[in-house]
Amino acid sequence: MKKHLFILLFFIVFSAFSQEKKAGIWHPTKVGFLYNKAQDNNFLFDDKDYSYTTETFKTQLFYDLGSWKKLNFEMSVQPQIQTLKHQLINEQFVLPTEENYQDKRTEFTTPKTMRLYAFELGFALKRKIIKNLDFLATIGLGIATIDTRTERLAKGFTFIENGSLGFSYKTTKKTFLYLGGNIGHVSNFNTQSPNNGFNIIGYEIGFSYLLK
To answer: What pTM was computed for the model?
Structure first.
């Protein structure tokens, strides 16, 4: 399923660039910044085995992909840094059958701060609600690297997936304020072990500036 999503997004990007190159698709229409805070302890995901929180800082370049009827489509390029706080609560999650399981239990039950560095592509559907106010639905997929291993995810190469719903308000002729909610997932497609991954829900706030 995830592989199919990546293939689909690749063809969307390729088609958009091919069709809109003459219209300036290679030049961003807006630049922006987004802050996101999320955690695993929420109404959808509340795994008692561990605690996990994130703070994400994204820089954003926005590209118009066109419109259809009352809908507008937009792509964003989003390099980012995530600060992650993690602790294994239930040491029994690490089974005695694992190699050096006692050392792993000590390592993983110790609170730790980690970093995740990612490059993400976001694809947004926008619809105007009233003057200066748009509703946005966004999906994002990206590649990343995480600098610390846990009992749920190996150190190194991984993927991120995000879905967001929010509102963009045009505060001036060239500036926009965004407020939204986010659901996210981190895993590595079984390229390494372990790969239980993390699921989070949070909120996000962003600011962008119109270039044209």
So the answer is: 0.84
Cβ contact 132:169 at 8 Å: yes
Closest C-alpha to 201, from 39, 24, 10: 39
Q: What does the pLDDT look like over 170-206, one tens digit per residue?
A: 999 999 999 999 999 999 988 899 999 999 999 999 9
160 CB-near residues (< 8 Å, 6+ apart): 116, 118, 120, 140, 141, 142, 143, 144, 184, 185, 186
Give the strand pairing for 156-170 and 175-187: antiparallel
Q: Measured between alpha carbons, how far is 202 from 165 in angstroms, rounded to an integer?
A: 11
Max Cα–Cα distance, the chain, nearest Å? 62
Please state, in angstroms and rounded to a whole number, the distance separating the CA atoms of residues 19 and 25. 9
Angle at 105 between CA 100 and CA 107, to 5 degrees: 95
Helix, strand, or coil (residue 109): helix
